[in-house]
Amino acid sequence: MTGVPASAAGGTGAAPAPGGKLGAAAVNQASLWNIANILTMVRLALVPGFVLLLLADGGYDPAWRALAWAAFAVAMITDVFDGHLARTYNLVTDFGKIADPIADKAIMGAALICLSWLGDLPWWVTGVILGRELGITLMRFWVIRYGVIPASRGGKMKTLAQGTAVGMYVLALTGPLATFRFWVMAVAVALTVVTALDYVRQAVVLRRQGLAREHGEQPTRA
Question: Cβ of 132: how many Cβ atoms within 10 Å?
Fold first, then answer.
């Protein structure tokens, strides 16, 4: 996707064309504006709009809450599609690697904090979910020298459950639906805790394996 044909670069490509660095910079800049990154940017831009809609008119107007839910739903949908497009069409960029998880955590964190501030969701639920996300992110950096912890099926189920539960809390639901969303959130919290423990286990195993390889290589280096 980011390659330049030899004919476009000056024929044989044996010698760089004048302004070659500028041309390379232009290619890199163009590669940033792919559909996957644009969807990530849209998700980031939706965060402040979502907060304003959710808190509009005191935060309890069903119409404003419905609009906030629509913004949240769009953000969740773009989260699914941008990663799929990036992997399928080789559109992975350094910007996307950084911005995508930030956008994910920003929209979810904004929703949880606003819902707890409005009194719709207990603060401990928000603390468990956000604490898990922060902790796992820091843990990934802690073991990154030994390898990458891949996203698990349980982690994907957790994300789906969290998105569904939070979306239901954003809507002004009453009656049986309000009771049902409580149980959906309970499942989401349970998956949040269980998957966190699994990631910790993977991190410990990965670190032990990495340390074992390092110790095994030391005599050879000497």
Answer: 19
